[in-house]
Amino acid sequence: MAKPRWLTEHEEAAWVGYRRMRVLLDLRINRDLVSQSGLSEQDYDVLSNLSEAVGQRMRLGDLAAHMCWSKSRLSHHITRMQDRGLVQREECADDGRGSMLTLTRKGHDAIIAAAPGHVASVRQHLIDVLTPEEIDTLAALTHRVVARLQD
């Protein structure tokens, strides 16, 4: 068994700082989103992905894969959103086991109303704290890590 490569003090400080920032940033942005729009982060993610899809429709399996969710988890969440009138689920014509998700008028109105406050929160709590050079660095490193994780 290979000997572990423990983090250096410098690396550990970066790792711990990142983890703490991620937790606090997610909590703050989620709190702002719920208080301003009544939407959860998960609601917002579903609605924003559907609003950007061709015809504002996606297969449940495709959306689950895109969001890195299990189909079961997304299906349960979609049921709750459907009960609130935000999305509509239909049987997939070419796959009897699949579902198509469609953004309803109410869902469209909800994402349109929530977006300005959400982007203001992201800007206030992250973007405006950074310099343009730091934003470039953040974009580069997040894309590199995502690319590695998707391999």
Automatic annotation (TrEMBL):
GO biological-process terms attached to the record: response to stress
GO molecular function terms attached to this record: DNA-binding transcription factor activity
A Pfam family per the record: MarR_2
InterPro entries: HTH_MarR-typ, MarR/SlyA-like, WH-like_DNA-bd_sf, WH_DNA-bd_sf
Classification via SMART domains: HTH_MARR
Record-annotated HTH marR-type domain positions: 1-147
Coiled coil residues, start to end: none
Superkingdom: Bacteria
Official protein name in the record: Transcriptional regulator, MarR family
Organism: Asanoa ishikariensis
Record lineage: Bacteria, Bacillati, Actinomycetota, Actinomycetes, Micromonosporales
